[in-house]
């Protein structure tokens, strides 16, 4: 991680150090987005796990589909920022599209993570609002929240 932290800081993107563990392409690092899928494997005493990092950006939806089609479980990251959540959950939003695509591709287990809570000053009411709206939507898709 120290290596990624140093490289990210040199490019003025210090907060991206963890993203760079899987984002290896120069374009990914310059733009601050995942473009292609990346795999990271590890084993526990009980399971063999492969983490598939798939892009969330609309321009790379084909790559997202490629990664998601191989998954048993998906982690849907939702941005809590004002306007970000609303854009993602809107009729044509990426959050909505990704949840629907994952389910359609056979991924029946979904973990939802809410990111960027610091931008809301850790607002409990914002957190609950996101949980309520997201739970309602993913239930309609077919998931069991």
Automatic annotation (TrEMBL):
GO molecular function: GTP binding; GTPase activity; translation elongation factor activity
Name the UniProt record assigns to this protein: Translation elongation factor 1-alpha
Assigned keywords, A-Z: Elongation factor, GTP-binding, Nucleotide-binding, Protein biosynthesis
Family annotation (Gene3D superfamilies): P-loop containing nucleotide triphosphate hydrolases
Upper lineage: Eukaryota, Fungi, Dikarya, Ascomycota, Pezizomycotina
PANTHER family per UniProt: TRANSLATION FACTOR
Domain Tr-type G as annotated: residue spans: 1-145
Gene name for this UniProt entry: tef1
Record InterPro entries: G_TR_CS, P-loop_NTPase, T_Tr_GTP-bd_dom, TRAFAC_GTPase_members
UniProt cross-references to PROSITE patterns, sorted A to Z: G_TR_1 (PS00301), G_TR_2 (PS51722)
Organism: Hymenoscyphus pusillus
